[in-house]
Structure prediction request, 233 residues.
Amino acid sequence: MTESTLPFDIQPIPLPADTPTDVRVWQVQIDLSAPLDSAAHAVMNASERARAARFLRHADVARFGVMRCVLRHVLAAETHRDAASLMLEADDRGRPFLAHPDAPDFNVSHSGAFGLIAISKKRRVGVDIEEARATFDWRELAPAVLADVDRREIEAMPDEHARSATFFDCWTAKEAVLKAHGVGIGGAAITMTSFPVLPRDGVRYTLTREGGAFDAIALDAPSGYAAALAWSY
Prediction:
C-alpha cells in the first residue's frame, strides 16, 4: 500500500530502530465533516454504516467512518484481499479482529481530529492517542490511571504544565498496553493502576512484570496530542 493512493490523509510514523520490524503504525488525519456517502467510504458494509448512524454527533460519525475505511485499506494491502470483502469481527471483549487465516494483529485509536492504526503479523499490538485538552483536569482521573510510582514521578515534575503532559503520556502508554493485552480499560486481570510505566527513558516506558511481556514507547504526535504504542515480546 502506498499512502498516496488512499483518499485519506494517512502517513506512516517512524519508529525507533530497536522496534520489531514487523510492527508498523500509521497516523490518520480525520476530516470531521466527511460525509459517509462519499466514494471514499464505499468499502464500508451495511453493519458498519448502521453503527456509524447511531452516533449523535457528525464528528463521531466521521471519526468512525474514516478510521474504518483506512483500516480496511491497510488490512487489504497486508492480506492481498479486497478492502470491501474483509470480514472484521469482535471478540468477547469487543476487540476487533480480522476473521481470515493468517490475519495480522491490529489496533486502532482516535481522538479529536487524529487516529492511529498499528499492525503486526508476529505479535500483539496496542496503540492509543489522546487529545491533551488544556481544560482537562488530569487530577480527577489520576486515581484510576496512576500506580504509586507513576504518581511520584509526575508530582516531581517542575511545573503543572509538565505534570499534565506527563500524565497524558502515562495514560496513553497504559491504554496501549491494555489494548495489546486485549482487555481494554475494563479488564479484570490487569488494570491501569496495577502496573507503572514511568519513568520514561527517551521514548521507551519502564514496564514492570505486572504489566506483562510487553514493551511500550511514546509516539510522535501532533501538537496538543499524546500517543503511545505497545507490543508483545
Notes: The chain has two domains: 3-127, 132-232. The longest strand covers residues 225-232.
